[in-house]
Design brief:
By secondary structure, the chain is mainly alpha-helical. The chain has 2 domains: about 60-255, Alpha-Beta Plaits, CATH 3.30.70.1900; about 260-335, no CATH class. The protein contains 13 helices and 9 strands. The strands form 4 sheets. It has a 3-stranded antiparallel sheet. The longest helix is centred in the last third of the chain and has 18 residues, at about 300-315. The chain is elongated.
Length: about 350
């Protein structure tokens, strides 16, 4: 009587020597493709983690990300990329075939930061560091983050990995944490000692940039920007995911894109500020003429006009009366009305 062959043994025979290639779904390989029980020992787990982290992401993800980014920028024109400072361990404690896990996009197998994790981090940071106006029962907290009865006004989108932005253009990397006092940490009433054996645990961490986007209903944009400020501070100072006490999970938001027209307006305001009080009557007219003849957008013209008028008002009543007689001053004041 022949011995029965299990489905796993048959699969081992068919798939023997089969290796992942560029574009293999990393999440599928990590969760499903373990050929035999040898992956239960430490060495095989480490080899398997190295194998998974070496897989290149699919080319289709580039196309998907461009479309996703285009959609998000319609929802949140101020969305920006956040760069991981060291490594990111997101979903480390989730269920997986290894002792550890990593959060991967279900379709494309790339790392991402769930919107729920971003929202939870921002909410915790607000409660801890933003004062009594941001406690759970406060109006601010309920408006932005919601409560058990209603959702908050601000939506936190999943932060997807920016293609080829990771270390050596790779998103995932092999990593190791070493537990030196296992019995103590498992609560076995064993105090840590010098003769404890270290227990290296392989895991997969992520690097690179991730697109952060928030959204809010029309008229609630100010709340969205407040939430963004809180989230940026939380990512920079607290970090997200696992092992934050070891420096993992810290993320820095990229600088806001520079508006050339705004730069011109700021340069003009600096020129007005630099005029000494004794030369104000002779030189301010030149700056006013430059403002009136400029092609700056209306909002920036108004900003410069407000600054110019403030400079005149700060000079005192006599100076104000002198400038009021100048033809250009009336035109500048008109910019504040238009």
């Amino acid at each position: 009587m022949s011995a029965q062959v299990t489905r796993r043994e048959r699969l081992n025979e068919v798939m023997k020597g089969f290796k992942p290639t560029s574009g293999t779904n990393i999440g599928l390989w990590l969760d499903k493709y373990i050929l035999d029980a040898t992956h239960t020992d430490k060495e095989s787990r480490a080899l398997f983690a190295r194998e998974v982290s070496a897989i290149d992401m699919s080319a289709e993800y580039d196309w998907f990300f461009k479309n996703w980014e285009s959609y998000l920028r319609e929802m949140d024109p101020a969305c920006r990329k956040a760069k991981v400072g060291n490594r990111l361990a997101i979903g480390l404690g989730s269920e997986g075939v290894l002792e550890t896990s990593v959060t991967l996009h279900r379709t494309y197998g790339v790392p991402y930061v769930p919107g729920s994790a971003l929202k939870g981090l921002a909410a915790a940071f607000a409660r801890q560091y933003c004062g009594p106006d941001w406690q759970i029962a406060s109006d601010n907290f309920r408006v932005v983050f919601g409560d058990t009865e209603s959702a908050g006004y601000v939506t936190f989108f999943d932060a997807l990995y920016v293609p080829k932005s990771g270390l050596n253009a790779k998103a995932l990397h092999f990593d190791v944490m070493t537990v030196h006092h296992r019995g103590y940490y498992e609560g076995k009433n064993q105090p840590p000692a010098d003769w404890d054996d270290p227990n290296p645990v392989p895991f997969i961490s992520a690097t690179g940039e991730y697109l952060i986007a928030l959204a809010a209903p029309e008229g609630c944009e100010a709340w969205r920007e407040l939430a963004r400020e809180i989230l940026v501070s939380a990512l920079e100072n607290e970090g997200i995911g696992g092992k934050t006490s070891s420096g993992y999970g810290r993320m820095t938001m990229e600088a806001e894109p520079v508006d050339p027209e705004q730069q011109k307006a700021q340069a003009l305001m600096l020129s007005i500020k630099a005029i000494p009080i004794e030369k104000l009557s002779s030189e301010l007219g030149q700056q006013a003429t430059a403002l009136l003849s400029s092609q700056l957008p209306g909002k920036y013209k108004r900003q410069v006009a407000e600054y110019l008028v403030k400079r005149v008002n700060d000079a005192g009543g006599k100076q104000r009366k002198k400038f009021a007689e100048k033809p250009w001053f009336a035109e500048v004041e008109r910019l504040l009305i238009d």
